Amino acid sequence: GVGKSWWIPHGHEVKYNYPFHKELYSFFMKDEDLIDYESFAVEAVGDIGNKTNFGSMFDMMEAMIEENPNEIRERQLILKEQVVSLTYGLGEDAHRYDDAFSRVMKILESMNDYDRG
Fold first, then answer.
1. Which partner from 29, 52, 80, 82 sits 20 to 30 angstroms from 89, CA to CA?
2. What is the pTM assigned to this prediction?
3. What distance lies between CA 105 and its chain's CA centroid?
4. Is the pLDDT assigned to residue 1 strictly greater than 50?
5. b/e map 11-31, b = 16+ CB within 10 Å
């Protein structure tokens, strides 16, 4: 079946567009090595007929800010926990954190272990 797309209706599924998505690798990876994008992403309906009209998305975000600022803060904190794994470390401290490169290595290692059974 066709899954959810965050770009265009009936487009590529979210799990194929974002790295380390929990739905794509959950059968052989630990949860702490995967990213639950739905826990911090905010889904808003766009205007399919006019790709430059973001009015409905702005309205939804403004309503969320007014009605539920705590939810926004919770999502920001979750994103803060994940942001390092979405970047590549540079400089002397590049190997101190679980960055995107180390996540890729974990995926390859897990795939290898999974294939061995």
1. 29
2. 0.74
3. 18
4. no
5. eebbeeebebbbbbbeeebee
